[in-house]
Design goal:
This protein is mostly helical. The protein has one domain: Na+/H+ antiporter like fold (Up-down Bundle). The longest helix is centred in the N-terminal third of the chain and has 40 residues. It is globular. The two termini are about 30 Å apart.
Amino acid sequence: MNQVLGNTRLESSRRFWSLLSVYGLMIAATVGGFLLIRMSGESMMAGASASALRSIPQAKPPVKVDTLPHLLGALLAIIVAGRCLGTVLQWFGQPRVIGEVIAGILLGPSLLGRISPDAMHFVLPTSVAPLLGVIAQLGVILYMFLVGLDLNPDHLKSKAHSTVAISHASIVAPFLLGAILALWLYPSLAPADVSFTSFALFMGVAMAITAFPVLARILTDRGMERTELGTLALGCAAADDVTAWCLLAFVVGVAQSNLTAAVMTIGLAVGYIAFMFLLVRPLAHRWLHSTEESTVSSGVIAWVIVALLVSAVVTEAIGIHAIFGAFLLGAVIPHHSAIARVLRNKLEEIVTILFLPAFFAFTGMRTEIGLVRGPQEWLVCVIIIAVATLGKFGGTWVAARLSGLDSRMSASLGILMNTRGLMELIVLNIGLDLGVISPTLFAMMVLMAITTTVATSPVLSWIRGHEPDPATANSV
């Protein structure tokens, strides 16, 4: 018995060190590969073409716009259009949020602005853009807090080695492919004043994003959230999100500062993350884990909201964007605690129904599909979609196969991890605000985000084929 136990421990130890060695080689290869790409790209000159920078002409309002009625009208239009289109897309197996995203784009210059600029200006006048942007930012901050609350540590603990390996492989592959793609896109689609390093880092991170909330919604709608595939996908997506947001924080630090300031920003960010997880998280578990829902008063909720705003202000001051602070605070609150359930119940509806449509409308005002003109630019758009899909699907599939999963399970996981959705739009808006990408590349990347997300459900159904009803399948 002791010999069998000893052999088991030895085999487990060998697997651990083997996985650690492979993981170390993967990270080293990624860093080395990016440095080689950077050496090749730093000698290039950026300078987006005129078509990449121009905007679609918009009609000027004949009289001064009364801001509040138009702001309310814009919210009304995007909510109604988003709900209607979302309902239609649900009939085709798509999550409602895709309809809301597309509605925001259709009400902007991409469609309504081309059909009738006056009508677009009436629905989404440029005068309300700053206020709509503020509402959108607040909505995204609250949304990222809810994403943090939804992170279930159990998804990371179950099959932890496989989860981390697959997740990071699904980041490394598209990251490197995105950086390689940047060598081709930088001379024509990067703003003139952005460095190749910032551009390549951003392209890599943008290719590596997975939309954890949309993926979770797809699995729930299909009744797969408790199956082996669903649990593994949620765990991989959770680890993917945490890693990708940390990478994005690094990119923001590099893009906003010089090298010395960027290193300081990264150091402060790492310190704040450590503070949140090593000090705040244990205290939150001690104070909130045993709380009953009946004892969660409005005062307690108010203090959590105060903590949310403080955390957002801190990360904004550090230089890595307020959404990271909101996400971190949500992640350190116990997932199954009463306060987490109460906050989700009280915030989720108002955030998803009111605030996120404002973000979609704001994104729609900035997305100009008409900037993608001619066969050559559409070919670039198709290549971006292909590279993004190849990186996510390929990296996930290879890592899953090496972890011992069968081919169909690996392919299903690869398709699920290719879901980008709303998280990609948040990243792209940050890149556009920082001036790292041009409006034309922004439009191309938005199309990539929509295409990869819309493709998830039908392709997953095709791969899975005829399988047992999830309700009767083994759950984990």
